[in-house]
Design goal:
six-stranded mixed beta sheet; mainly beta; Immunoglobulin-like; single chain
Length: 648
Amino acid sequence: MRHLSHDHEGGTPMSHPHHDHEGDTAMRHHDHHSHAVPAREISDSYSRDVSGLPSATSPETVNLRDGDKFDLRIHPVRKKIDGTEVRMLGYNGSIPGPTLRVDQGSEITVVVTNDGDVETTVHWHGLRLDNRFDGVPEETQAPIPPGGTFTYKVQFPDAGFYWYHPHIREDFAQEMGLYAPIIVEPSDPSYWPAVDRQLTIALDDVLIENGQMAPFRRSGPNFVAMGRFGNVMLINGETRYSGEAAVGEVVRLYLVNTANTRIFNFALRGARMKLVGGDSGRYERETFVEEVLLSPSERMIVDVLFDTAGEVQLEHRTPDYVYDLGSFSVAGAAAGVAASSFEVLRSDPELTTERRSVEHDFEREPDKVLSFVASMPLLYGGEAKPVSSYVCPMHPEVTASEPETCPKCGMRLVPVETETLGPSSYVCPMHPEVTASEPSTCPKCGMKLVPSDALPASETHEGHAPDHHGHEGHTHGGHDHSDHSGHEHSEHDHDAYDHGDHGDGLEWEDLMPEINRASDPTNMIWKLIDRQTGAENHAISWAFKVGDRVKIRLVNEMDSDHPMHHPFHVHGAGRFLILSRDGQPEPNLVWKDTVLLRAGETVDILLYVSNPGLWMAHCHIAEHTESGMMFSFEVEDTDPRGSRKEAN
């Protein structure tokens, strides 16, 4: 591997990142038509040319031992998706990149060469490693320029499932294919239940328009309102998974959601699943499950028993659709013996003890309170004008005569203007069937209704409907999964999460694609707000010490221009436990680095601070991160001998 002029190892911590990066793009169920990209957007876009590029290769698993060195190169590749070749980016030429399998307690050296399209870093997601190798630009290291290299020392103190990805223009580089898993094998051989083999599953989606990746702006992200939803589902970089299993075989699936914004509700139809682990190790109690919900960057570890011959479907289940992600073909008989212990549900002694030790933390007041709030000048800005009604941007059937919030989604209604007293109707940007003759909020999503003529003109974009690959319909859970000319997307009886009249608090699809496409950091402002000081985003100044246990209350405000879910991620300062959701104690503990907050939800977490340095925390919807929904906090080392990552 060639080491070019920009060769760095580590570096001193720097000031708060400015993230002056480069590049970016969503999904709606409407017809496939050509989308004429404006000339300005073309001139401001990254290259989509595939000429002369090597074809993407299949990802490999690399076994690394303590002290090993690994070369990682970033470069453009061409990849065939649904019969068309598109330009993407790969780690060592594959999408996903190489899976790293390492031992708990080991340290490896990774030399990264950037032959890609933009400056980059590598963030080792979930790992409690030395701060200078965390991969945050202008904070823990200088960006790696195109043609440059950087050497990382990566430590693995905790067993579990992690991943690596860029931390500059995540909305572009990660979506273009820069993501890959890390499996940390536990030092205790009895840590996990017995299985016959292990597989990694990376869940993603991409937005294809006119036979190309939809353009990304060099000047900065768009689709900032909801994040870029794709219209083609990818599983391990392919549009359909195809695997084999034997009857009686138990296979461990390491699941990670690498999408910019899409939530995946993963299920297997025709096999049994046992949830054994999450972000950073074992669950307090193993449980049998029908499906597992993963927000962007979250991981789940499930053991699967293939107990019947035939086809086992991999599915993404939403309240309205079931997407077919592929299948296992099950035949023959397993030679292994893992099935004999599959029925056993084990408990983790560490977390069982930890539950008792945190009992007082459930009831005490939080040390910090962090709110998630949206300001949306794109819809609600400008000078005040006389109006006669208000409408929800997401549910246009919800209207009112006075300013209020949508009972369905919590968004503030927007004014509808007319030439005289005001508009004749208001509409929700996300739910156009919600209309009203007066200003109000949408009962489905909570957004304020906007004037019916205030929404961006509807355009048609080839590929905005989810790509379905012509699979047959099927029946699941008593519902008829009829054929919709593609991916299985049918009725699914998803467990509802009670947020009053606001549904499950999750945005499963892009319900306002034109508004979303038009949104950028200047007209869609996402804020993390310290409720005790009023500081917002980078102005938040938290300071902790190694050994602190910090109770943080996360409040996803409904009194917001666009209430929606947020996956909140804390870098390697430590790891946390979820204490409660909306005041209800978390029934099954697991060490976490990312937690999903539904719209209107309040979640209490307990952060075990164990690693000194300057650490970032942010929403892990890529477009929200790149628009500034982040801050960093200091951790002081109280141990004169240095880092104490081993402490919890």
